[in-house]
Amino acid sequence: MIRIVTTPRLESLEYASRTAREHVREVAASANEAFGEHVRELYAVTDRAERAEATTDEVGAILKRAMQELAAAQEELLLKGIEIRRLREELEGGPLAGQTLTVLLHWGEPHTIYGSREDAYADTATHGRPLDHVWRPCGERPAAEFEWRCEPFIYDAGSNGFRRAFMPAPEPVGGGA
To answer: How many CA atoms lie within 13 A of 58 on its CB side?
Structure first.
């Protein structure tokens, strides 16, 4: 089949071709614009996701530290509760008359009070005194001359307080008896 193409037909085809090319350019420009917008949105979403992940990591670290602090506080609270129970039992244990307490002195200043001399000796080990340290009587020398010194006290119901367990022997005044 042979078809004869006339000039008006060729002009009409050329016009349709130009129109189609312009339409293709417009569609391609719109597509490029839409693609660019989608890429910008993708970068923005990716940035938000990365920031959210970083924030989540920071919050996770803060939460971990808070949980560690909470665990330490709970442990401390438990130990204090045990100590309070022990002290209540001690307090409800009966009369104090004749009971001996040991005061641990550090350079003559009271440091801690213990229920027994052995407890006081054991605690000095936590302050640098060796466990096998030989404790000697201090005599009449002032307590301030010793780094660590243990002094026993006895509850005296008559005075409603404690007194030293070992009172120094009174020296005669002026050679009198």
So the answer is: 6
